[in-house]
Write a structure and sequence with these properties.
With about 170 residues, the protein is of the alpha/beta class. It has 2 domains: about 5-80, Translation initiation factor 3 (IF-3), N-terminal domain (Ubiquitin-like (UB roll)); about 85-170, Translation initiation factor 3 (IF-3), C-terminal domain (Translation Initiation Factor IF3, 2-Layer Sandwich). The protein has 4 helices and 8 strands, in the order ββαββαβαβαββ. The longest helix is centred in the middle third of the chain and has 18 residues, at about 65-80. The two termini are about 35 Å apart. The model has no long low-confidence stretch (mean pLDDT about 85).
């Protein structure tokens, strides 16, 4: 967000001389007093754009309009940014066929709707000895969902979970 005091405007500018730019302005280096007079003649503001330059660069413009358009641009950029939705599906290492098919249908729907899918097998207690079965289950799921999505991360064991990510295919 743009703060009101982000730029020095008019009387807040402290430099002796400034490089003046802007519409309907003779570009060049002016004493601060003359630059302010030019801005006043056009009924606009003198805004310090780059204070670290030598001499500082100032532009003659309508500051309120500039701030408004900057906010508008930021809002437009924010609305174009895509929000990634991640849906999770949890399996056990010994998930039976009916449960597997039921969860696979949900996974298809999530991918069709454009959400990423995080499928994981949760190992409770000693079921960690079936980690190969869990990996086979996730790879089978990935193979059956390849029409809807692409595997982003192959099955990987993290603690008591084996996790796999599937991203939706672009339409």
């Amino acid at each position: 967000m743009i703060k009101e005091d982000q730029h020095n405007i008019n009387r807040k500018i402290r430099a002796e001389e400034v490089r003046l730019v802007g519409d309907n302005v003779e570009i060049g280096v002016y004493p601060l007093k003359r630059a302010l007079e030019i801005a006043d003649e056009q009924e606009l503001d003198l805004v310090e754009i780059s204070p670290n330059a030598n001499p500082p660069v100032c532009k003659v413009m309508d500051y309120k309009k500039f701030v408004y358009e900057q906010k508008k641009r930021e809002k437009a950029m924010k609305s174009k940014a895509t929000k990634v939705i991640i849906k999770e599906i949890r399996f056990g290492p010994n998930t039976d066929d009916h449960d597997y098919e039921f969860k696979k249908k949900h996974a298809e729907k999530f991918l069709k709707d454009g959400a990423k899918l995080k499928a994981y097998v949760f190992f409770k207690g000693r079921s960690i000895i079936y980690k190969d079965q869990g990996e086979i289950l996730l790879l089978k799921l990935a193979q059956e969902l390849e029409d809807y999505g692409k595997v982003e991360q192959m099955p990987k064991l993290e603690g008591k979970r084996m996790i796999m990510f599937i991203a939706p295919k672009k339409k």
